[in-house]
Amino acid sequence: MAFVDTINSLKKKMLQNSLERSITVTPSNNTFTINPNKAALFLVNVAANSTIAISTLNSDYTSTGSVFSILLTLGSDSYTVSWPININWADGEAPDLSYKNLITFTKFDNSSNWCGGSIVVDDEFPSA
Question: What is the pLDDT of residues 63-114, one digit of tens each?
Fold first, then answer.
């Protein structure tokens, strides 16, 4: 159990360090536009049915790939989130969202698709 506690502690420290360099995304017409050229962590508070949009990568990143994460807080279980169609989800479909989620996206080389995966984080993690 001590090993798991240590890993969780390290995850929390890494997330806290990322939060210091994160961007809070404000929706426009219930659409949150994520620009992976500007940061590696985006804070999103969903307060209505919403859509996530991902901006195009700058040419600096198209040959090497990119990684970014969204710390998404869902204001109510009744809210839904729509995702771009160019995401290949780890389990083949968009994740079921809980109150607080860490969703990571990776793009390799010149691919037009993102690989996405999600974990539910507990209340000890910082909020978006």
Answer: 667 888 999 999 998 999 999 999 999 889 999 998 899 999 998 877 788 9
**What ranges do the domains of the chain cover?**
2-120
Which of left, alpha, beta for 7 (phi over 0: left; psi -120 to 50: alpha)? alpha
Rounded CA separation 62/5 (Å): 37
Do 18 and 10 form a contact (C-beta atoms < 8 A)? no
Contact 15, 126 (CB under 8 A): yes
The continuous run of DSSP H or E covering 15 comes out as helix 2-19
Distance CA 99, CA 112 (A): 30
